[in-house]
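Suppose a colleague, Dr. K., hands you the sequence of a protein chain of 175 amino acids and asks what its three-dimensional shape might be. Before reaching for any lab equipment, you can write down a predicted structure in token form. Begin with the sequence itself:
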Amino acid sequence: PQARLVIDKFHVVKMVSEALEYERKKLQKAVEKNERLNIKKSMRWLTLKRPANLSEEEKYELDLVRKHYPEIALAYDLKEAFYGIYNETDKYSAMSTFEAWSNVVPSNMEAFQSLIKTVHNHYEDIFAYWDASENITNSYTEAMNGVMKVANRIGRGYSFEVIRARILYAKRARE
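The predicted structure, expressed as tokens, is then:
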């Protein structure tokens, strides 16, 4: 009865990556075919990477994106700034960082505006992440659910007990 709903960090930051993708695709539709193919091939993975994970060549490519596609550069910077919310050490700093972030998002970036609306609609549950003594996620549970779904697909016809035993007693599970 005293359980607290906390929206997992993974799902929140996934929404901002999807907003970036939406903006990239919107730009991609507006340019000529040759340029569109170049944008699709190079820019997608480049903009999904975090700055610390970029190689020197990728940093150079990102600088070219900034020069030729300022809309995508802005969307990338917004994504990174949003990720920074989760670097905050306390709830109130995270909330004020989000509010500052939401005030700089241009009104014509629909996907980011939709993200702002979603965060406001689930504000308490998203920022409850900082109420826990440890900032944890549900990633392990979700990964295990995925493993069970795969085992269920592979073992059509098995009973629940057999699938459960395969999951629990597999060599990987014991490790």
